[in-house]
Amino acid sequence: MVLFFVGLAFLILGGVFYSKVVEGQFQPDDRQTPALRKADGVDYVKMSKNKNWLINLLNIAGTGPILGPIQGILFGPIAFLAIPLGCVFAGAVHDYFTGMISMRNGGSQVPKLVGKYLGTNVRRIYNVIIAILLLLTGTVFVYTPGDLISNDIMGLDPNSNVIWIIYGLIFVYYILSTILPIDKLIGKIYPIFGAFLLISSVGVFIGIIMKGLPYLQFEGYGLLYDHPAGQKFIPSFFITVACGILSGFHGSQVTLVSRTVSKEKEGVATFYSTMITEGLIAMIWAAGALVLFSSGKAPLDTAGTLMVGQISKNFMGSIGGYLAIIGVIVLPITSGDTAFRSLRLIVSEELNIDQRSNAKRAGVAAVLFVPAIAILYFAKSNPNGFNILWRYFGFTNQLVAVFALGVATTYLITQNKNYFITLVPGIFYTFIVFTFIISAKNIGFGLDIKISYVIGAILAILYAVFVVKNANKRRNEINSIVLD
């Protein structure tokens, strides 16, 4: 119980003070932002500070900061330390620098930033990985809200044929949000979605305070538990709780918002603080899951999507529980729409397709939804399909973040700033992602965990050497490249 409140205090206070350190290294100024300099009424649109904050929060907060912590708390109360530490020193740093570096480069998407700062060959690798991640993200964020609507709102079997109608309606919304100007649909509907998000998170938190505090631990256990599935805390926890700590997917979202921010000095509020807020969401749902697990109200093997409904109704009653479930449904939908929007922008930038034309935007979007539907069909028709989909999503999500942290480190080196604030998280997550995929059975290489640790450590060192040497070697070249 004490650890939960210590973690919350560190998350809030650490975010307030460390954000000043991070901002001091970037040094935002009064230069004209892409939202003003490149205004086109579609993607480059000036929006208010409050609206940008809310849109970015809903863009980045999918089901990850809920389903991930629900599963991650099975590693023990150590989650209440790992989540705030990761948010403050890695996740929020990643989001801030990615958004601000994009702003300094004309609102460019991450692939162009990777090409400029890490090189053309690295960019080619990144393009494949980010395309896979965004397709997986969009598909996951059709699957999970569709099943929650079917099971928890409509009381129907999520494996019935009705589910495909629900999926279809979500896809229709995604198509519209992918094609329409950002302020026409996303900018108008998100405040309503945001209200549901806040109601669900605050409601569960109040419920925990009122009747869950005695159960914020497992009797007879310490800081770290033996995971029921035998997974190791390092690396599995940081893949499982991806979006609640650090998420590469966020890079594709903050670069969208970098095109709607009117002042660089709004960066901390828009990019850094939203990740801290996502960390708060993760802490609340991890605590809610721990209460149900430790009190015996839910078996340890309860599926994450089922736990959402149980946690909501346990702490908020029937009516409040439905409101909370709606809030959770909102999260993936408001991330899935911008996942496809980001993919459209990335594809159009790579292929030089002018996005001012409605027909061209619709054409690119139509092509993207075909493989997404195919992946969704596989996940739904295969008994283990969703588990496979989620684990690959978690792995690619963290792998993408390693590239963005490399971009930020290179930027700081070329600007003669303290690059260790991004290099250290990059080294750690390089170790995590490669250790995971090397040791993972079924989806990875299945090697012994000790061997995986050694290989992961070697690759993490090589990552650091490459990033630093590349930045110093190409310093003059990088500073001469203008992306706009």
Which fold name is given in CATH as the topology? Amino acid/polyamine transporter I
Number of strands: 0
Second rung of CATH, namely the architecture: Up-down Bundle
Number of domains: 1
Radius of gyration: 21 Å
Q: Count the helices. How many?
A: 19
What's the main sheet like? none
In terms of structural class, how would the helical and strand content be classed? mainly alpha
Shape by Cα distribution: globular
Question: What would the keywords be for this entry?
Answer:
484 residues, mainly alpha, Amino acid/polyamine transporter I, 19 helices, transmembrane, cell membrane
Can you walk through the features of this model?
About 75% of the residues lie in helices and about 0% in strands. The protein is globular. The N and C termini lie far apart (about 50 Å). The chain has one domain: Up-down Bundle (Amino acid/polyamine transporter I). It contains 19 helices and no strands. Helix 17 (about 420-440) packs antiparallel against helix 18 (about 450-475). It is an all-alpha fold and about 475 residues long. The mean pLDDT is about 85. The longest helix is centred in the last third of the chain and has 48 residues, at about 305-350.
